[in-house]
Structures are given as C-alpha cells and as structure tokens.
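Worked Example 4.2. Consider the chain below.
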Amino acid sequence: MSLVVTPKDQFQAMIRLLNTNVNGNVKIMYALTAIKGVGRRYSNIVCKKADVDMAKRAGELTAEELERIVEIIQNPLQYKIPTWFLNRQKDHTTGKYSQLVSNQVHSTLREDLERLKKMRAHRGLRHYGGLRVRGQHTKTTGRRGRTVGVTKKK
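Applying the procedure from the previous section yields the following structure tokens:
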C-alpha cells in the first residue's frame, strides 16, 4: 500500500500519502490538495465520506483515518461519489470512469498526447509542434523562447 505511518500516536509534521509528502501542519482538507489529481472540492467530499473532522490538522489524524481517506481517494465509485465529480470520465480505451491521482495523472496525459499524435489529429500535431492547442491567436503573442526578428546578412 502507498501509506507510510509511524507507530507513535503523536503529531506528525509530514505524512506520506499516495507517493506524495503531505504537510501535517495544514488542515486535512487543504493538505490533501498537495496530492496531484486531488483538488479542494474532491478533498472536501473525500473527508466527508471518510467521517474525518475537518477542523483537524493532517498530522493529528490516526492511521485508520488516513487509510480510510486513501481508500476513498483510490476507489471513489465504491463510496458513491458521482461520476461527474471524477477527473477521468469515459476513458478512451476502457470506457470506465475513474479518479487519477499522483503518478497516474502524468502517465495518462502522456498516453493521451501520444494517441493524438499517432492518429495525426489536429490537437496532436499542435502539441507535437509546440504550438497553442486551444484556438488562441499566435500571430503576435506567445513568442517567448522562439527566435523572432530579422537577422542581418554580413
């Protein structure tokens, strides 16, 4: 499991959840947002489903409360979190709804971009060329990092 907790029942300044260091000094709802793929609204609903006191700091939680939170984050549909709340709706390959967290977010995004490039879709070609993808104007904006201007011949 991806949960590491020290055996003592004291305050912990740093907690390791889902391969992410979570600050123990912050309230639990905001501390969970350090995990990639978990925002404020999702952490709020997870804390409510886990019956965790929202006034507690993350370092004050017990090991069983942390395990409940991790279980709900990983399996949201089993705890009746609606499908429209999840960040991966109707996956292209499986057709399932899921919540991607930590390393899954990065790898899935990379796979999606590779799929778009492979099928030679317009979005994939724009990503491949390093251009703006979502219809922004590019004539005068977004020139940083590129060579602009006329070079003088000698």
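The chain has a mean pLDDT of 88. The first strand starts at residue 3 and ends at 4. Compare this with Example 4.1 before moving on.
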